[in-house]
Structure to design on (533 residues):
């Protein structure tokens, strides 16, 4: 019964999509699924699909989103608030009191100060001695005073045997650490919760994301400028958080189009702005290649450009979704393609279909496949050719369709209907979840959410694969096409952004005269120095 009703629903939806433009002009309403005759209780969630009122349509998330900037979004601070104004050793030198220009005052452990100064590590950024930790109890502070108009702090340490050592500290560095490691001594001082987890300098941007619709203005970059400019690279990574997609122009075309060369311009670009692309488990190159040829289509449905693909994210079958950002390079041919915003979709479902949202964020389903697309040498092979030995490997990933972070924000959308495996959904959950999933997949194809764009030869689309879904490009009948694709994981992206923000801060804040003050520290502390939000 459910199967027959699903067929009816999908047929009705397809007819409604074709009629939507005429309906919109006539009524101003966006009806994207026609009513199903005599719907059963099984389709409780799908009843929401019977109509979308004009009011609901206009409440879909706006395309307005925070524009990435090459300059830091610096708040209006107290000028020089981090400068040291007063300081003294206390408790027989076991602690140090430090007061800053904004009147905040903290007590620091002398051992923490000694243990944390950059003098403890060498040119390789490792600690110079593994034994120093055993000597920390020997140190107390005998003298402490501001240096350079309060921009620095000089601390004189003494050991039990009477030897003294002097270390210099950057005041802004101390000011950033103070709420985490210091004891707040007055109302002007704040205390942060104990740091838990690695975090990221990009984390603050998640709360400020907004969804976008079909009229998105896609950020665009020039390849030659992007590879040379720290500020442009920062803007590039920020654009991948919001809106989660951009276009890089001017990569040129490869020297040759065979698979060992087709993706070289994309590979070189990625290497300069973020690092090496992820290495596939079997493939000889760290990028894949698709072509509009009958031979390429033999690798399977994904590689058959005549086969329409529903809107999807990549790496759905890989546990944890290692591909955080995806490079898609148009090595040959100019086409039209499309993307949609998983954040806008999830926020729409959350607002208009809360029961479906709960199912899509809590119930774990499975994407899974067996990969037999490559030979033991890493060359592409036809999945229909039994004479060619494959190098098979299994892939399985069980997860919610919409994954939330600890703050309840959308962390990741994982969607690929063609790679959906056999899901072990409970008997009581199955019908409700399938109804919610049907709603979700239909919204993924709704034209209101889909951005169409021109994709010229020699350019590269980059997507946030945790947020942005993409579909099959439209290739003119007479057009030859070769497309290369590759991925970079989230940790590499976040740490590259961290490094770029350190470079930018070192340039913008000459008082931080040693880059060692910006490394080896938690992201939560570094964010206070680089003014990252």
């Amino acid at each position: 019964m459910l199967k027959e009703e699903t067929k009816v629903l999908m047929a009705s939806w397809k007819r409604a999509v074709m009629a939507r433009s005429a309906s919109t002009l006539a009524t101003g309403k966006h009806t994207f699924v026609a009513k199903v005759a005599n719907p059963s209780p099984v389709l409780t969630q799908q009843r929401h699909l019977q109509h979308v009122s004009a009011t609901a349509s206009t409440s879909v998330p706006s395309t307005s989103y925070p524009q990435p900037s090459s300059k830091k979004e610096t708040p209006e601070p107290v000028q020089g608030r981090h400068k040291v104004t007063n300081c003294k050793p206390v408790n027989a030198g076991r602690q140090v009191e430090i007061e800053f220009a904004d009147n905040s005052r903290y007590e620091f452990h002398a051992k923490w100060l000694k243990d944390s100064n950059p003098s403890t590590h060498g040119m390789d950024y490792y600690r110079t001695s593994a034994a120093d930790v055993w000597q920390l109890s020997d140190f107390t502070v005998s003298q402490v005073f501001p240096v350079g108009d309060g921009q620095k702090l000089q601390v004189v340490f003494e050991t039990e045997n009477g030897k003294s050592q002097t270390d210099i500290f950057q005041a802004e560095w101390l000011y950033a650490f103070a709420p985490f490691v210091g004891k707040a001594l007055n109302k002007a001082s704040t205390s942060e919760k104990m740091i838990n987890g690695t975090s990221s300098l990009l984390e603050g941007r998640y709360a400020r994301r907004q969804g976008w619709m079909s009229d998105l203005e896609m950020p665009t970059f020039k390849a030659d400028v992007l590879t040379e400019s720290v500020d442009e690279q920062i803007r590039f990574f920020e654009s991948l958080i919001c809106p989660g997609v951009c276009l890089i122009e001017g990569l040129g075309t490869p020297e040759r189009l065979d698979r060992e060369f087709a993706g070289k311009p994309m590979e070189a670009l990625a290497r300069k702005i973020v690092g090496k692309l992820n290495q596939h488990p079997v493939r000889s190159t760290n990028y894949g290649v698709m072509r509009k040829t009958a031979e390429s289509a033999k690798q399977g449905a994904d590689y058959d450009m005549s086969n329409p693909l529903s809107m999807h994210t990549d790496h759905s079958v890989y546990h944890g979704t290692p591909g955080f950002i995806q490079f898609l390079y148009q090595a040959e041919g100019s086409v039209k393609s499309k993307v949609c915003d998983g954040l806008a979709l999830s926020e729409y479902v959350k607002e208009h279909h809360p029961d479906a949202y709960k199912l899509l964020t809590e119930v774990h389903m499975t994407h899974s496949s067996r990969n037999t697309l490559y030979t033991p040498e890493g060359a592409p092979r036809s999945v229909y050719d039994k004479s060619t030995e494959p190098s098979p490997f299994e892939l399985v990933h069980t997860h919610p369709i919409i994954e939330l972070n600890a703050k309840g924000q959308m962390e990741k959308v994982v969607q690929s209907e063609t790679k959906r495996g056999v899901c072990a959904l409970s008997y009581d959950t199955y019908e409700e979840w399938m109804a919610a999933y049907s709603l979700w997949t239909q919204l993924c194809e709704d034209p209101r959410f889909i951005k169409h764009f021109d994709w010229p030869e020699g350019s590269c689309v980059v997507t946030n694969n945790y947020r942005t879904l993409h579909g099959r490009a439209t290739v003119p009948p007479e057009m030859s096409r070769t497309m290369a694709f590759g991925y970079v994981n989230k940790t590499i992206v976040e740490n590259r952004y961290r490094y770029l923000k350190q470079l930018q801060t070192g340039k913008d804040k000459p008082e931080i005269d040693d880059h060692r003050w910006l490394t080896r520290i938690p992201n939560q502390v570094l964010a206070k120095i680089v003014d990252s939000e």
The chain has 14 helices and 20 strands. Residues 1-6, 16-77 have pLDDT under 50 and may be disordered. The first strand starts at residue 84 and ends at 90.
